[in-house]
């Protein structure tokens, strides 16, 4: 087991190292980078919006359900929702969902190119396929995923605000007052740390599994599934490490 892990880790690091080469045609690389930004960002936006709204709404309702003491002011609900969304729900939950949406797409796309020998054809033409195919996906994810996390946090807080108002739990004025109380600016910075870390994970690990596929359609499906599972596990592990280091 340890030998298999070290083997995958070594091949993964070699893949990352070989990406850093001078582009053969900068315009071609830029076009691929923009394509990946659109695919990852715009393609994932609907699911991010839906998940974020319901995350905020459910967090508000469940927090109000647990805070039954009359000694606790209602504005505390907004503070708990705000901190829960910024610290954990938006970065971690959304990125786990993106690991399934984006990760499976990246792994299956590269796996299909490998099985149909498109990658071999590019290498025969003298193109560094790791730099051309893998690097734009990773850089695009690093640019777009933190933006999706910010959008998710804003929508989740707004969804919690609307859920509290529509269900009669607390008014929007009380919710807004709670949002402004005891805000720790470092929480936002910490959320961005997690967003950039998770963006690298959900793009690089599926790219590794897809790039090294051997076989046909069955192996592509297995590689896609393995990439998503490994990405989710590494995200949870990185979540714990970052929390232990910075909080």
Structure notes:
This protein has 247 residues and is mostly helical. The chain has 8 helices and no strands. The chain has helices at residues 2-19, 26-66, 75-115, 118-124, 129-166, 172-180, 185-211, 217-246. Helix 3 packs antiparallel against helix 5, helix 3 packs across helix 6 (172-180) and helix 5 (129-166) packs across helix 7. The longest helix has 41 residues, at 26-66. The relative contact order is 0.17. The mean pLDDT is 88.
- The shape is elongated
Beta-strand share of residues = under 5%
Q: Could you spell the SSE succession in H and E letters? A: HHHHHHHH
Instruction: List how many beta strands DSSP finds.
Output: 0
Structural class: mainly alpha
Number of helices: 8
Instruction: Report the radius of gyration as a whole number of Å.
Output: 21 Å
Helix fraction bin: over 70%
């Amino acid at each position: 087991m340890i030998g298999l892990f070290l083997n995958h880790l070594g091949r993964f690091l070699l893949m990352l190292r070989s990406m850093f080469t001078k582009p053969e045609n900068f315009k071609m690389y830029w076009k691929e980078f923009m394509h990946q930004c659109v695919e990852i960002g715009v393609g994932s936006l609907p699911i991010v919006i839906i998940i974020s709204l319901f995350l905020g709404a459910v967090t508000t309702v469940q927090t109000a359900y647990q805070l039954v003491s009359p000694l606790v002011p209602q504005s505390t609900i907004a503070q708990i929702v705000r901190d829960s969304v910024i610290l954990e729900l938006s970065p971690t939950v959304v990125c786990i969902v993106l690991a399934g949406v984006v990760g499976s797409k990246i792994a299956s796309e590269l796996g299909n190119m490998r099985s149909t020998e498109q990658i071999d054809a590019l290498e025969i033409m003298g193109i560094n396929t790791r730099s051309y195919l893998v690097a734009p996906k990773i850089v695009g994810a690093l640019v777009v995923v933190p933006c999706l996390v910010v959008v998710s946090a804003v929508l989740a807080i707004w969804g919690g605000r609307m859920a509290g108002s529509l269900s009669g739990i607390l008014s929007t004025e009380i919710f807004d007052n709670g949002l402004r109380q005891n805000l720790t600016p470092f929480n936002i910075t910490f959320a961005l740390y997690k967003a950039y870390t998770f963006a690298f994970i959900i793009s690089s690990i599926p790219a590794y599994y897809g790039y090294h596929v051997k076989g046909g359609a069955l192996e592509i499906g297995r590689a896609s599934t393995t990439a998503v599972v490994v990405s989710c596990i590494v995200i949870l592990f990185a979540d714990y490490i970052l929390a232990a280091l910075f909080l």
